[in-house]
Design a protein that fits this description.
heterodimer, A: 336 residues, alpha+beta, Aminopeptidase, Elongation Factor Tu (Ef-tu), domain 3, eight-stranded mixed β-sheet, six-stranded antiparallel β-sheet, 10 helices, 17 strands, B: 339 residues, eleven-stranded mixed β-sheet, 9 helices, 25% helix
Chain lengths: 336, 339
């Protein structure tokens, strides 16, 4: 599964431009699926048929944050606008890569004070001598993502785009090893989550699931002087209670807790005071879908160096396996 | 020209009747069927039974304006904004209120009565009111009621060989183009949708798209042009006179790659100037259409307008002609493609 994660984090896929990461994931799952398709929003949807008559949707988003070029000046410097939650404070002197591999680094205008560090003070330098040379490589409207890097110790991983390629790797890993699940399982690798959970909504509309679980990363409160949050790296799978976008269905939340305890999988509760996951869009689809989120604790989210703990990652994999095999899913759907 | 009539008509979000009636009259003989839906969207279709892709064109009828919230004992009208405003532009502007077209002016305490601290700050809604010349509350109540909408009264005017000013170009330019495009014939079912309540949260377009379930959608908009002094070139969103602007992405949508490439190819094939919208701020009906149902491929083509969301905006009529040429040629090309 770590190998899948490394492959997936290396894929280019800013929100709305997921074709490269789609084909990387598709290559890893196609032979294990009963059906694979993409939809109008760019979601990759794989179906694994089960013995039961219910439809379970698992969602992890393929897209990542990035930048889009808005202007090329006479000297060949590029101005850009954010794609998703990009913090200008951490962009300075970071490298970005385009779909074709073109690399650039973020420079900054002269600042009188660090407080003046706003997006409009930043530009991307791709090493072009002038406008003409720059436009041979990059055009207005092209997008770029953090330069790819993957570093692993025995216990932790530092990489770009663990948000949410970690979730994608969990879904793909599960799909590759799943024998005859209890219900039809739709593995949905969603698009455009980072710009407003857009893909998950249309995917859910098409699938009409009876129950859904999003798998995404979540923040932690375990670093020096961090915002108070009761999630720690290395303390297990995080079971979401709520965030700004959704309140997890109590049946799903309680089932995850019960399954973790039965299988002795370490877990922790998660309450996130900012952010949202695909569960937000799925639960509001059509006449409503009972939905929850399983979260992988992750530090430094939306930076080029996100960090997760391998034991947490494995705990999430184990809990996800228990979840899709559980006979009690049907009870949640029935009681809904 | 139709744009002039549409610009002079009033349709503050939620009160689109005047523009809707004007459009209905204008296009009724060109289309096969016409209806107004529950939200107030005007939906017209040509060739509903033809084979081929079902194409939706959309433009919003509504404009930003003010809603009367209270009538004071002096007969002055307090108001709230409807849609996004720069409140600094309100004072001393003429408005027209309600179905009776009552004239008024937005007033404020005179400059010599203001404290220094008041002069240094933009006047807020609490410091502004509309004066319709009523003697008292009773007198005013005969003319207007809370809930009535007030619109600006700017008259469309061509001010040079190719530039014009007027109000509500966002998005009467789209309405005008859509209405003109009903005059031609197409090989597939084509829906002309004039939407409501775009300015207050893209509320009309979603229902229309849900009902029509088109195979693709094009949204025609008026967008901001910021090619003005004291703005650096890299911050211009669009430039007047450089042709229609294509959106790559904004706050609400990532435009379908295939549609965008086809629009670019059409422009280049027919030598039509075009530009990209070089900001991701703002959003429009395409955002909700795109995520309706299982998702609908959508693109946005915008006419650059300076000073939008104010009592007067300014556009370039050659941009208008080029936008029409681009959309029309794209629509002609669709028949050759598969969806």
């Amino acid at each position: 599964m770590i190998e899948l994660l490394e492959k997936f984090t290396a894929g280019f896929g800013p929100a709305g431009e997921e074709s490269q990461i789609t084909s990387i994931i598709r290559d890893e799952i196609e032979e294990f699926s009963d059906e694979v398709r993409t939809d109008n929003l760019g979601n990759l949807i794989a179906l694994k048929r089960g013995s039961g008559d219910k439809k379970i949707m698992l969602a992890a988003h393929m897209d990542e944050i990035g930048i889009m070029i808005t202007h090329v000046d006479d000297d060949g410097f590029l101005r850009f606008t954010p794609i998703g939650g990009v913090n200008p404070g951490i962009l300075r002197h970071k490298n970005f890569v385009f779909a074709d591999g073109t690399l650039g680094t973020v420079g900054v205008e002269k600042l009188d004070s660090i407080k003046d560090l706003k997006l409009e003070k930043l530009f991307l330098d791709i090493g072009a001598a002038d406008k003409k040379e720059a436009e041979q490589q990059v055009k207005v409207g092209d997008s770029a993502v953090y330069q790819k890097s993957f570093y692993s110790t025995s216990s932790r991983i530092i990489a770009n785009s663990l948000d949410d390629r970690a979730g994608c790797a969990l879904l793909a890993g599960l799909l590759r090893n799943l024998e005859m699940p209890a219900h039809d399982i739709y593995f949905v690798f969603t698009s455009q989550e980072e710009v407003g959970t857009r893909g998950a909504g249309t995917a859910a509309y098409g699938i009409e699931p009876d129950l859904a679980l999003a798998v995404d990363v979540t923040g932690t409160g375990d670093t020096p002087e961090a915002h108070t949050m009761d999630v720690k790296l290395g303390k297990g799978a995080a079971i979401k209670v709520m965030d700004r976008g959704s309140i997890s269905h109590p049946g799903i939340k309680n089932l995850l807790v019960k399954l973790a305890e039965q299988a002795e999988i370490p877990y922790q509760y998660e309450v996130l005071e900012f952010g949202a996951t695909d569960a937000r869009a799925i639960q509001l689809s059509r006449s409503g879908v009972p939905s929850g989120t399983l979260s992988i604790p992750c530090r430094y989210i939306h930076s080029p160096a996100e960090m997760l703990d391998i034991s947490d990652f494995k705990a999430c994999a184990g809990l996800l396996q228990e979840f899709v095999s559980s006979k009690e899913l049907k009870e949640i759907i029935k009681n809904n | 020209m139709l744009l002039e009539k549409l610009s002079n008509a009033r349709a503050v979000s939620g009160r689109e009747k005047e523009v809707r009636e004007l459009l209905r009259e204008e296009i009724k003989d060109n289309v096969d069927r016409l209806k107004t839906d529950v939200m107030g969207n005007l939906i017209a279709v040509k060739g509903p039974d033809k084979p081929g892709p079902r194409v939706m064109l959309a433009a919003h009828m509504d404009e930003v304006g003010l809603m009367i919230s209270e009538i004071t004992s002096d007969g002055l009208l307090k108001f709230k904004p409807v849609g996004g405003f720069d409140k600094r532009i309100l004072v001393s502007k003429k408005v027209s209120i309600g179905e009776k077209n009552i004239s008024g002016v937005i007033g404020a305490k005179a400059i010599h009565l203001q404290k220094k601290s008041e002069r240094d700050k933009p006047l807020d809604y609490d410091n502004l009111y509309i004066d319709i010349g009523a003697k008292n509350k009773e007198n005013a109540e005969k003319l207007v009621s809370p809930g009535d909408m007030a619109a600006f009264t700017t008259e469309f005017k061509k001010i040079s060989s190719h530039r014009a000013l007027g109000k509500a170009f966002d998005d009467r330019v789209g309405c005008s183009l859509l209405a003109e495009l009903t005059e031609y014939s197409y090989d597939y079912p084509i829906y002309f949708v004039f939407t409501v309540q775009e300015e207050v949260g893209l509320r009309g377009a979603g229902q229309a798209a849900y009902w029509l379930k088109p195979d693709l959608a094009l949204v025609l908009e008026g967008t901001s042009a910021a090619d003005v002094p004291e703005n650096k070139e890299f911050r211009y969103s669009t430039t007047l006179g450089k042709g229609p602007a294509l959106t790559v992405r904004d706050r609400t949508i990532v435009v379908n790659k295939k549609l965008l490439q086809e629009l670019i190819a059409t422009a280049e094939e027919h030598d039509i100037p075009y530009q990209f919208r070089r900001t991701t701020a703002g959003g429009n009906d395409a955002g909700v259409i795109n995520i309706t149902g299982e998702g609908i491929p959508a693109a946005v083509i915008s006419l650059p307008c300076r000073y939008i969301h104010s009592p007067v905006s300014l556009l370039d009529l050659t941009d208008y002609a080029n936008m029409k040429k681009l959309v029309y040629n794209y629509l002609l090309a669709i028949k050759r493609k598969e969806f």
